[in-house]
């Protein structure tokens, strides 16, 4: 196990590791060792640990002991293979490949065919009996080494290769003869020398050492760092390096390379899924530079290897108890396994596969719940294209990653990023993507390529990110230089609208309308599990959600301000309302009534304004309590600054000035302007708002409390079950809460006496200021519940104005790694979270039965939900659409905690 590792040991043979050593050996190395342990055909090799990488990255050089350890393992490998690295007559060749703990497809570097040189290429030709193969392998080494290790622009090699094919009038690499490849090798070496300022190294050990260092360096390339930020992978893990004896798929038609999945990663269905390419090396498949054939075709190409592969795939899936992603090579009829890992999958596939594995007895329901997550569920709730819409089909490719994406066609990553930042929705169209396209892929709504299959770079990365992707649409001729795409007689220029369906592989001209997702229809009670594909998905979601609801401790409420939102939230599984923002009830026609309250100069004017608002508020609450009958409804009293209910100061000033110039000034406008100036604040979010309003404007909070109490009494007299909770916002000291609560208790008592009802209304507060969190023990003496307002708490802890900073410098903070994710998106556990934790502990120490919840948007964030479970909150509250996500994650948090406790 990883905790028993030798701290002085930096290199492990494939026979020494196992799948549990991913922290040390990376995912690729750990799984190569596991397959070796299972007796599967894995080429011999060894793994340099992530610990060696960390030393290299911290000090700028490899550990002193590493060279000797590599030499010892290389000598053992040479003895086993009965040949030496780079020897002239019969060279041992190796690959040097990255392999981090978490899969980062295409983000880090690989070099194949190390050990070839001007001297050994002839020996390889003699040993293999295939001169063309030897020179093809040599040109691949120079190309990969030049780009990866020496930093040569890869386009220079590609252009030379394209020119060589054009000169012969051919379109695929395999039609180049040995003589053509010899010329390319000379040309590639000249490119290296001109661009790198040194000759291509002829010493095999120098090649290997430089390649190892290059793989270490690739951990911190811009694209790797960007991918880690996107996938929330820690930046301090480092990568392992795998040195593996080469096996060759480019030895002719009886050789080849492929990628296989034990189930369809797009749908989750069982069957034969993957890509195969004859006479090719592995990078050809992943890069998508040549279109592959379906894996099923291997049965007719090489029945023996196909049958063996099917058996190995079954072995691996049963062993890992999950969908496995497999890379393999066939060398002249001999099957070799180069990699396996738990495969990336689409959201729909994740839910289907989890329930399938339960039915097969491979995992239990608790493990199935851990195999899916809230982000995947959210993806399944996105709309899909309307099957009944009139469309203009452009073509069809491979359905690589599902979803319905519409946007303007762009043909390079720079444009995708630029247009996206300007608010445009774009579809990134390429012949094939490469790791340098990652930023553009993130910016785009979807990705469309004319080459590659389900295992190409575009497909694998898109699935990992949950991006819609269609690959291998061969009918589409993509011209990136002229920024256009042609299909038949139709030309799509940059900026034209296109729609891509990642579930069917169809590509449409123009914008295709969308309809609700079947998963949303299920949550709203409009769809039930049946026999077709959509119903099968719904059935899988239903099963996992049902289990999550059974095991979760956290209740899930909704942020809802009206009956319509409340009813929808209830359909989505809300167990009450955790935040009703009453300020939203004062918009529209009621704004003038609030203006009268603000402009009131006398007690009578103020009381008349409040009396006019009371029945409207009462009617609002009656509707809300009816829609949430039997469930708690937390009503927050008026919170925002009063100036938000008044006209904009600039617009009003201009209006008054123009009226005065015409000598027809409106008296009400003059009073409004005076009030606006009086209420104007430099920083209104830290000014006269929340509880401060209730203390400064007599009767304001009393009117709202009366409306709540009278509505609750009305509902109770109608045989309903209202469960109102009154929440006082922006409390910073217990004295504020005590004053408001004393007034509220008096009003509630009056309503009870007048209506003859026994109202069990509770009164609590929002914890949204650092001082409130720090004095939670005192505040709990006057509060029956706390609801953490983590949006404002984050603003006040960090000193951020959310409306300003997200647009101004958050992008830079994310790029520089100061944030892994915005603290407004996922709770800052170290800062804001520590205040929440301490307030929970202090509040419950004072009042053991204190009810605790959260009503900021963090309540619907998957990672934050786990934190709220851990610190002991009773519920989370979020927008209606995020309720299913919060329910799922609350279940995952509970199941995960149980699993940890049992270990």
Task: Please give a structural write-up.
Residues 63-291, 298-348 form the Pyruvate phosphate dikinase AMP/ATP-binding domain. It is a single chain. With 903 residues, the protein is an alpha/beta fold. It has 36 helices and 31 strands. An eight-stranded mixed beta sheet has the order 12-22-21-14-15-16-17-13. Strands 24-25-26-27-28-29-30-31 form an eight-stranded parallel β-barrel, surrounded by six helices. Strands 1-2-5-3-4 form a five-stranded antiparallel beta sheet, sandwiched between helices. The longest helix has 25 residues, at 603-627.
How many beta-strand elements?
31
What do the pLDDT scores average to? 89
Q: Which strand order do you get reading across the main beta sheet? A: 12-22-21-14-15-16-17-13
Low-confidence stretches: none
Oligomer state equals single chain
Structural class: alpha/beta
Outline the biggest β-sheet: 8 strands, mixed
Number of helices: 36
């Amino acid at each position: 196990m990883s905790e028993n590792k030798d701290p002085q040991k930096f290199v492990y043979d494939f026979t020494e590791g196992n799948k549990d050593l991913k922290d040390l050996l990376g995912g690729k190395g750990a799984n190569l060792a596991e397959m070796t342990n299972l007796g599967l055909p894995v080429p011999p090799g060894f793994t340099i640990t992530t610990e060696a990488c960390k030393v290299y990255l911290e000090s700028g050089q490899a550990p002193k002991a590493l060279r000797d350890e590599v030499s010892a393992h290389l000598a053992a490998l040479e003895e086993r293979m009965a040949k030496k690295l780079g020897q002239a007559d019969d060279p041992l060749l190796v690959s040097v490949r990255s392999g981090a703990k978490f899969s980062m497809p295409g983000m880090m570097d690989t070099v194949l065919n190390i050990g070839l040189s001007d001297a050994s290429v002839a020996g390889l030709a003699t040993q293999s009996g295939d001169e063309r193969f030897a020179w093809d392998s040599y040109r691949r080494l120079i190309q990969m080494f030049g780009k990866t290790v020496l930093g040569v622009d890869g386009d220079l090699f590609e252009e030379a290769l394209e020119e060589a094919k054009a000169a012969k009038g051919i379109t695929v690499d395999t039609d180049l003869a040995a003589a053509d490849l010899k010329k390319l090798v000379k040309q590639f070496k000249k490119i290296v020398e001109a661009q790198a300022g040194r000759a291509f190294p002829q010493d095999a050990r120098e090649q290997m050492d430089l390649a190892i260092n290059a793989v270490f360096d690739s951990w911190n390339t811009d694209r790797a760092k960007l991918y880690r930020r996107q996938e929330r992978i820690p930046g301090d893990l480092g990568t392992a390096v795998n040195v593996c004896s080469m096996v060759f798929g480019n030895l002719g038609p009886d050789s080849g390379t492929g990628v296989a999945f034990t189930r369809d990663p797009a749908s989750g269905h069982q069957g034969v899924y993957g890509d195969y390419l004859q006479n090719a090396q592995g990078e050809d498949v992943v890069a998508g530079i040549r279109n592959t054939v379906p894996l099923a075709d291997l049965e007719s190409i090489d029945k023996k290897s196909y049958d063996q592969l099917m058996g190995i795939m079954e072995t691996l899936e049963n062993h890992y108890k999950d969908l496995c992603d497999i890379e393999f090579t066939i060398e002249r009829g001999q099957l070799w396994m180069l990699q396996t890992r738990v495969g990336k999958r689409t959201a729909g596939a994740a839910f289907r596969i989890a329930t399938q594995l339960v039915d097969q007895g491979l995992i239990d329901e608790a493990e199935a719940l851990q195999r899916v997550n809230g982000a995947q569920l959210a993806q399944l709730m996105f709309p899909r294209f309307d099957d009944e819409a009139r469309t203009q089909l452009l073509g069809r490719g491979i359905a690589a990653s599902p979803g319905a994406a519409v946007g303007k066609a762009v043909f390079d990553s720079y444009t995708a990023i630029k247009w996206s930042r300007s608010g445009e929705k774009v579809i990134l169209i390429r012949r094939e993507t490469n790791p340098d396209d990652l930023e553009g892929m993130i910016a785009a709504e979807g990705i469309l390529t004319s080459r590659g299959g389900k295992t190409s770079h575009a497909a694998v990365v898109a699935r990992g990110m949950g991006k819609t992707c269609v690959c291998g649409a061969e009918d589409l001729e993509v011209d990136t230089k002229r920024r256009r795409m042609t299909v038949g007689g139709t030309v799509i220029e940059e900026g034209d609208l296109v729609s891509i369906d990642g579930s069917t592989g169809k590509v449409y001209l123009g914008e295709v309308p969308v309809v609700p997702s079947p998963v949303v229809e299920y949550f709203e009670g409009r769809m039930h599990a049946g026999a077709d594909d959509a119903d099968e998905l719904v059935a899988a979601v239903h099963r996992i959600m049902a289990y999550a609801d059974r095991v979760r401790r956290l209740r899930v409420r909704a942020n809802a301000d009206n009956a319509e939102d409340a009813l929808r939230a209830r359909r989505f599984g809300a167990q009450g309302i955790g935040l009703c923002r009453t300020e939203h009830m004062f918009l529209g026609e009621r704004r003038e009534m609030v203006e009268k309250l603000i402009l009131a100069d006398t007690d009578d004017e103020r009381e008349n304004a409040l009396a006019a608002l009371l029945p409207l508020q009462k009617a609002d609450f009656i509707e809300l309590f009816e829609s949430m009958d039997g469930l708690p409804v937390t009503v927050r009293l008026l919170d925002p600054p009063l100036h938000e209910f008044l006209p904009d100061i600039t617009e009003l000033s201009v209006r008054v000035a123009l009226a005065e110039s015409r000598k027809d000034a409106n008296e009400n406008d003059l009073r409004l302007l005076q009030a606006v100036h009086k209420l104007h604040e430099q920083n209104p979010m830290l000014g006269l708002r929340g509880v401060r309003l209730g203390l400064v404007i007599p009767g304001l909070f009393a009117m709202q409390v009366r409306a709540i109490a009278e509505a609750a009494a009305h509902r109770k007299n109608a045989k309903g079950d209202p469960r109102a909770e009154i929440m006082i916002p922006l409390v910073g000291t217990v004295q504020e809460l005590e004053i408001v609560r004393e007034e509220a208790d008096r009003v509630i008592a009056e309503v009870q006496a007048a209506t003859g009802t026994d109202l069990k209304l509770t009164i609590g507060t929002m914890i949204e200021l650092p001082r409130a969190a720090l004095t939670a023990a005192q505040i709990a003496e006057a509060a029956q519940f706390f609801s953490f307002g983590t949006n404002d708490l984050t603003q006040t802890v960090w000193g951020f104005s959310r409306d300003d900073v997200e647009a101004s410098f958050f992008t830079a903070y994310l790029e520089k790694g100061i944030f892994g994710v915005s603290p407004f998106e996922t709770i800052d556990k170290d800062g804001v979270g520590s205040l929440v934790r301490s307030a929970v502990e202090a509040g419950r120490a004072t009042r053991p039965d204190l009810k605790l919840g959260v009503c900021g948007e963090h309540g619907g964030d998957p990672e934050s939900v786990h934190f709220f479970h851990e610190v002991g909150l009773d519920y989370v509250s979020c927008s209606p659409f995020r309720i299913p996500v919060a329910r799922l994650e609350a279940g995952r948090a509970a199941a995960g905690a149980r699993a940890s406790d049992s270990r």
